[in-house]
UniProtKB/TrEMBL annotation:
The keyword Plastid does not apply. Keywords: FAD, Flavoprotein, Oxidoreductase. The lineage of its organism: Bacteria, Pseudomonadati, Pseudomonadota, Alphaproteobacteria, Sphingomonadales. Residues 232-380 form the Acyl-CoA dehydrogenase/oxidase C-terminal domain. Belongs to the acyl-CoA dehydrogenase family. This is Acyl-CoA dehydrogenase family protein. Its EC number is 1.-.-.-. InterPro entries: Acyl-CoA_dehydrogenase, Acyl-CoA_Oxase/DH_mid-dom, Acyl-CoA_Oxase/DH_mid-dom_sf, AcylCo_DH-like_C, AcylCo_DH/oxidase_C, AcylCoA_DH/ox_N, AcylCoA_DH/ox_N_sf, AcylCoA_DH/oxidase_NM_dom_sf. The keyword Flavoprotein applies. Homodimer. It comes from the Bacteria. Residues 9-120 form the Acyl-CoA dehydrogenase/oxidase N-terminal domain.
């Protein structure tokens, strides 16, 4: 997007109109499958966004970004349809990978790996999580088993990864592995014969192209100059990526829950039962009232955390708070929408059923609520001991 169009509210308004009028009609497209929309559909939607001047709208032609607060306005608007973030190229994992590459990548790596992502012509995957049955890294990244060994001018990477979103069909990969210096990150071209997709998991969510895969990496050779940043700084870079990424998930799925609540509200106002509209029954009307409260609280939490990130702070504590509070509020909203709509809420006739599934999964990815609470509790103890 051209740098002169930096008014976040105006961009968000255009994105909202585009998602409601152009993207939402594709929600029943048969190319939306159990493992996400097909790449054919994604590219068709991105072509429409490109024609509308709305592709990757939070990043400008000069490489600068909207503020986190401004990004929130745009991403909430994009999330009004599960296809919206894909269409305008602000979906995970690409959005987080673009952010990390923009912060850490050299000019050469940006030209090779970042530019295709910003243009919307490529997808990416972030290879960090490992299989639980092999005692690999999950919520505890220090358990990482994947290794990278220097061999001349190449790193040789071997290991297993799990729940790797979008690996099938991705062109750019960021692989996290242990080196002698500690956890490090590497940029790789995909596909590569040394990276094998063992299977794509069947999961309750279905919004991300390529689904979530189990991966084997066997002797992957990566040129030394494709290490992202410095050796041993992988955990630091993961936090640079994950703190804003947790928040952008909140933004997108808040948009989805706003849409679900609109659909449930329309249903409750039109549907008659026991001589009056459903909304006039307190059991239903109060659920919709609680939805409005949770929506507003989620907005405030997102804006607060975005303001912290806009100061230049890493924001890990604040993003943990936001991830817990917003993901759980959104699940309450989606659950109430299903309940208000009864049988219609559990069918695929509206997008409400999918949004319910997606926000349930959101309570787990990018760290389950329990891990974030545990991390916050450790900080409480540290702060108390330091002041005692």
């Amino acid at each position: 997007m051209h740098a002169e169009g930096r008014d976040a509210a105006a961009i968000a308004a255009r994105v909202e109109a585009f998602v409601r009028e152009v993207v939402a009609p594709y929600e029943q497209d048969p190319r939306c499958g159990a493992h996400g929309p097909s790449d054919e559909l994604v590219q068709e939607l991105r072509g429409l966004a490109r024609d509308a001047g709305l592709l990757t709208p939070h990043i400008f032609d000069d490489g600068s970004h909207l503020s986190h607060r401004g990004t929130a306005q745009v991403l909430i608007a994009s999330g009004l349809s599960p296809l919206g973030p894909l269409a305008v190229n602000v979906m995970a994992p690409d959005e987080g990978n673009m952010y990390l590459l923009g912060k850490v990548g050299t000019p050469e790596l940006k030209a090779r790996f970042l530019d295709p992502l910003v243009s919307g012509r490529a997808r990416s995957a972030f290879f960090m999580t490992e299989p639980a049955e092999e005692n690999g890294a999950g919520s505890d990244p220090s358990m990482m088993q994947t290794t990278a060994v220097l061999d001349g001018n190449h790193w040789v990477i071997s290991g297993r990864k799990a729940f790797i979103t979008g690996a099938e069909g991705a062109s750019v990969g960021i692989v996290m592995a242990k080196t002698e210096a500690g956890a490090s990150m590497f940029l790789v071209d995909l596909p590569d014969p040394a990276i094998r997709i063992d299977r794509v998991l069947d999961t309750i969510d279905s919004s991300m192209p390529g689904g979530h895969a189990i991966i084997s990496i066997d002797g992957l050779r990566v040129p030394a100059d494709q290490m992202l940043g410095e050796p041993g700084e992988g955990f630091k870079y993961a936090q640079i990526r994950l703190a804003p990424a947790r928040l952008t998930h909140c933004m997108r799925w808040l948009g989805g829950c706003i849409r679900a609540n609109e659909i449930a509200t329309a249903y409750a106002c039109k549907r008659q039962a026991f001589g009056k509209p459903l909304v006039d029954h307190e059991g239903v009307g109060f659920m919709l009232a609680d939805n409005l409260i949770d929506i507003q609280q989620a907005r405030l939490m997102i804006d607060w955390c975005a303001d912290v990130l806009d100061t230049g702070a890493l924001g890990t504590v604040e993003s943990s708070m936001a991830k817990v509070a917003v993901s759980e509020a959104l699940f309450r909203i989606a659950d109430r929408c299903v309940q208000v709509m009864g049988g219609a809420g559990v069918s695929g006739d509206t997008i409400v059923e999918q949004i319910f599934r997606e926000v349930r999964a959101f309570r787990i990815y990018d760290g389950p609520s329990e891990v974030h609470r545990w991390s916050l509790a450790k900080k409480i103890k540290r702060d108390w001991m330091a002041s005692a």
